[in-house]
Write a structure and sequence with these properties.
By secondary structure, the chain is an alpha+beta fold. It contains three helices and four strands; from the N terminus they run αααββββ. The longest helix has 19 residues. The protein is elongated. The protein has one domain: Nuclear Transport Factor 2, Chain: A (Roll). Strands 1-2-3-4 form a four-stranded antiparallel beta sheet.
């Protein structure tokens, strides 16, 4: 007669072992992190970032409207951004906002934005060089 001690003699599952190894490997990658970009790489990235230039331009354009709080800008895919070189971008778009009488009007504009510098926190600053509203 054989004795049953209640112990299970299951074989280890290879799928579980592989899953644990993958989780540990991904955790190691996250803990080590990705290498930081050099200051030159960060500046080049900001220099070419037309989306960020457009985002900054929206605030600067809205300040010049009769009702800045009503300004509604389209997404980046609905504007035309052209790189001009020397970290500058020409952006053509429109903004919907109320005029002095409260009517919602669409105003087309052309703005030139230029990357200026990074602040102490590493945020990119852009300057508005020109702004023309189409009449």
């Amino acid at each position: 007669m054989s004795e049953n001690t209640g112990e299970s003699l299951e074989k280890p599952r290879p799928g579980l072992l592989i899953a644990v190894c993958i989780v540990l490997f991904l955790g190691l990658i996250i803990m080590v992190g990705f290498p930081d970009k050099t200051p030159q790489e960060k500046q080049q990235e900001a220099c070419n970032d037309a989306r960020h230039a457009y985002w900054v331009a929206q605030d600067l354009i809205a300040e010049r409207l009769k009702s800045p709080k009503t300004a509604d800008f389209p997404t980046f895919s609905h504007v035309k951004a052209t790189p001009l070189g020397d970290c500058r971008h020409l952006i053509k778009g429109y903004v919907d906002a109320q005029n002095g009488f409260g009517a919602l009007i669409r105003t087309r504009y052309t703005v030139t934005m230029a990357f200026d510098r990074f602040d102490s926190r590493g945020d990119a600053y852009y300057l508005m060089e020109t702004l023309e509203f189409d009449e």
